[in-house]
């Protein structure tokens, strides 16, 4: 149960992209905003400047759809994992924290690949690979792995970065083709580390 009394009726709320895990914004909730967030499934804050409830996206349409919420150990801070319906920041940026790049872009790329599977189009390279089947996708991973090794041993750093990127991309497609995701691999790697 959240302890709103500690912060004079307000608690800080960190909103994180459910898939990329990027921190999108920080806001504040009072008990009424928390109840509305739970009822509607969209993040609602208490605006300290407007002195009213404010649902993120009420003007822009860039709502934050709640996936899960997590109360911290002191019960006075909330972490919400959400699916953003567009840029989160009023400046048009994906996050209110101006990072130079999305540190978790691999998760975003995974989401793009999943979308290409769910909504195939003729122009999509992912769709063209998917149509050719798992043998062709696996072959592409093998080709890119060889090209990455060659670049590491005999080419420039730029070439190595490009070939490594190609390898990761095609591996993500193969992972999706097998019906798996990065979370599965991350959990496996974490269990091996312990």
From TrEMBL:
Compartments where found: Cytoplasm
Phosphoribosyl-AMP cyclohydrolase domain residues: 25-98
Pathway assigned to this chain's UniProt record: Amino-acid biosynthesis; L-histidine biosynthesis; L-histidine from 5-phospho-alpha-D-ribose 1-diphosphate: step 2/9; Amino-acid biosynthesis; L-histidine biosynthesis; L-histidine from 5-phospho-alpha-D-ribose 1-diphosphate: step 3/9
Location of region: Phosphoribosyl-ATP pyrophosphohydrolase: 106-194
E.C. number(s) listed in UniProt: 3.5.4.19, 3.6.1.31
Keywords associated with the record: Amino-acid biosynthesis, ATP-binding, Cytoplasm, Histidine biosynthesis, Hydrolase, Multifunctional enzyme, Nucleotide-binding
NCBIfam families: histidine_hisI, PRK00051.1, PRK02759.1
Family in the record: In the N-terminal section; belongs to the PRA-CH family. In the C-terminal section; belongs to the PRA-PH family.
Name of the protein in question: Histidine biosynthesis bifunctional protein HisIE
Lineage of the organism: Bacteria, Pseudomonadati, Bacteroidota, Sphingobacteriia, Sphingobacteriales
Gene assigned in the entry: hisIE
